[in-house]
Amino acid sequence: MIKPNTHFKVDVTINQVDFFNNNGYLSIDRITTDEEIEWLKQIYNKLFQERAGEEQGQYFDLGGPRAHTGQEVLPQVLGPENQFPELRETTFFKNAHTLAAKLLKVNQDNVNGGGHMILKPAKFGAETPWHQDEAYWNPSELPHRLSIWMPLDPATTNSGCMQFIPKSHKGEIRFHRHINNDPLIHGLVTDDLDPSQAVACPIPAAGATFHHCRTLHYAGPNTTTEVRRAYILVLGSPGKRLKKPLPRPWIDEEQEALAKLKSLAKPSNI
Ligand SMILES: O=C(O)CCC(=O)C(=O)O
């Protein structure tokens, strides 16, 4: 799997930067080359086939209870760049950093972060319910981050393209709960929104959508006969440390449920 030496430089206009800052999202038709996408597919498939990093918690089903053994509906790989450092040398990675700096209006030298991959299996991939990324994160920090979401397959409303609620990044973090109200399911959902305001952003493979970490977003189930693979980079500059952590009861619930699971798994001394 030799990385192709592709070159493709992408830029955004002032209007696109303004659009992102006003609406909390943006969509473009190309961020890398088709050749790089073909190479990425091989790495992507290997990571999911091997369930890379499962024991370290780097592979799990975002839409199912921890370590379940049934059909996976929303498998995810965290930090694929740790397994394949060459992912940091891609045209996608470089363009994503350049565009993240422009959209967040920060110096590119201060932009850092990492990736994750979410797969929606053909016919079986579940919806990624409405949420804000910041709801998952450290409540003691006010982040300045965005996600760059790139599909390796055409992303349509039927296969699970991204959908956004415009301007929602300007509000607070909504109340979230775990999918099915099960704190052993990592995936979060908020009911505090009007889905009729959603804007769907279908894009081709090698295109990209960008969303601010507070933007409400969703991706529908994959009802097509083809897999929907997405590689996401979360990039930004260091956040502000808060004196008082923001309340995130859903994070506490998950930690308590995991601790309970661990204690039940421990062999008894009796
Ligand atoms: O790929 C998906 O289904 C959802 C992605 C997402 O929620 C995100 O990138 O924050």
Inertia-based shape: globular
Biggest β-sheet, characterized?
7 strands, antiparallel
Low-confidence stretches: none
Helix/strand-derived category reads alpha+beta
- When the domains are counted, the total is 1
Per CATH, the architecture is: Sandwich
CA-based gyration radius: 18 Å
Strand order of the largest sheet: 1-11-6-13-4-3-2
Number of strands: 13
- Can you identify the CATH superfamily? q2cbj1_9rhob like domain
List the ligand species.
2-oxoglutaric acid
Task: Please describe what this structure looks like.
The protein has 270 residues and is an alpha+beta fold. The protein has a single domain (14-264), classed as q2cbj1_9rhob like domain (Jelly Rolls, Sandwich), CATH 2.60.120. It has five helices and 13 strands. The strands form three sheets. It has a seven-stranded antiparallel beta sheet. Strands 5-12-7-10 form a four-stranded antiparallel beta sheet, with no helix packed on it. The radius of gyration is 18 Å and the shape is globular. 2-oxoglutaric acid binds next to β6, β12 and β13.
